Please model this.
Amino acid sequence: MPYVNIRFVREKATKQQKAALIRGVTNLLHDILKKNPATTVVVIDEVDPDNWGLGGETVSLRKKRREG
Amino acid sequence: MPYVNIRFVREKATKQQKAALIRGVTNLLHDILKKNPATTVVVIDEVDPDNWGLGGETVSLRKKRREG
Amino acid sequence: MPYVNIRFVREKATKQQKAALIRGVTNLLHDILKKNPATTVVVIDEVDPDNWGLGGETVSLRKKRREG
Amino acid sequence: MPYVNIRFVREKATKQQKAALIRGVTNLLHDILKKNPATTVVVIDEVDPDNWGLGGETVSLRKKRREG
Amino acid sequence: MPYVNIRFVREKATKQQKAALIRGVTNLLHDILKKNPATTVVVIDEVDPDNWGLGGETVSLRKKRREG
Amino acid sequence: MPYVNIRFVREKATKQQKAALIRGVTNLLHDILKKNPATTVVVIDEVDPDNWGLGGETVSLRKKRREG
Model:
C-alpha cells in the first residue's frame, strides 16, 4: 500500500519509459519490502524547466548558459 | 490551518464537483478536529493517466486492456 | 485510486478522530467523484508546532504570544 | 541537499519572478542552515484557481464573488 | 535531478532495506531516463499505522480486524 | 495563500533557525509575488538520515564513509 511520487523536469519521457518506471518501482517495493503491488500507487509529476531550481538557478537558465 | 492535497487521475471532474470536494473536506476538518476553515487550504492535483500507476501499470494501460 | 495527504499541527487528535477523518474523506471522494474506496489512500501527517508556520511565524510562537 | 516545494495559485508569475524565488529560497537555506546550494532542489507548482481551496471555497469562486 | 518521495506504513524496514530501495530507485531513473544519480534525491517517509488509511479504514484497524 | 514544504535531513536545526526560515520564505513570497503573509503556510519536515538518499546512497552511509 505504498505511495510513491516521482518528480522530474519535463523533457522527452515517453509513455513507455514512464510505464517502465512505474513497473520498476512497484517491483522494487515488492522485492525489498514485500509490499503488495496491487495497492502500490506511483505518481509521476513532470515539471516545467522554469519551475525547477537546482543550485539556486532554474533548469531553463542552466541549459541556456551551457548551450550559449 | 491544515493543508490537504488531493490527487487523482484527471477524468471528467467538473468545477462544481471540485468545489464540493473542497467544501466537504474543509467541513470534515472543522467538525472532527475543530480546525479553522478560514485557514484550511485544500489543493487538488489532477494527474494524466499515463503518469498514474496502480498495480505496477499505468491507468491508461489498465483502461485499454479492460476495453480492448 | 485517489491519494489524499492531510497535514496539520500535532495537538491532541485521537485515533478515533483520525479514523473518522479517513472514513469521511474516502466517502466524499466516492459520493462526489465515484472514486473506488478500496484503492483510496489517505495519509495524515501530524507536524510539530515548531515546524509549522503561518503568517511568517511558527505556531509555537503564535500560541506563546497569545497566552503570554 | 534540501528539497523545497512551493505551491501557489497560477496567476501572472513571470520566469524572472520564479527564478528570483528559487534563488532567494536557496540562499536562505544556505545562510540560516549552511545547506549546500549545489544540491538544493526547489520545485514550484502553479495550481489552477478551480483546484485551490481556502475557507472551504475555490479561489475562482472567491474572486468572482469579490468582483461580482 | 529527480526527487522521489516513497511513503509506506512504518513496520520493520531495516536500514539495509531502505538503502537498497534508495539505490534501486536511483538506478531505475538512470537506466530508463538517463537521470544523473549524483543529483537524484530519494526521501522515505515511514507513517504510523493510525495515520494511514486504505478503503476508508486505518491500517491499524484493518490489522486488528484481520487478527481478531 | 501559498503552501511551502521544506524538507531536509534532521541535524541540529534550532527553533530559532526554523523560525527564521519560515519568516524568510514568507517574506520572499510577499516581496516577489505579493502573496499575502497572513495565509502563507510553511511546513518543515526534518528527515532521518537513514531515510534520505542522494547519489543512490543514504546520508547516514555517506557520512560514515567520509568520516571512516
Remarks:
- Chain D has one domain: 3-67.
- The helical segments of chain D are 15-33, 59-67.
- The two ends of chain D are 46 Å apart (CA to CA).
- Residues 3-67 of chain D form a domain with the Macrophage Migration Inhibitory Factor fold (CATH 3.30.429.10).
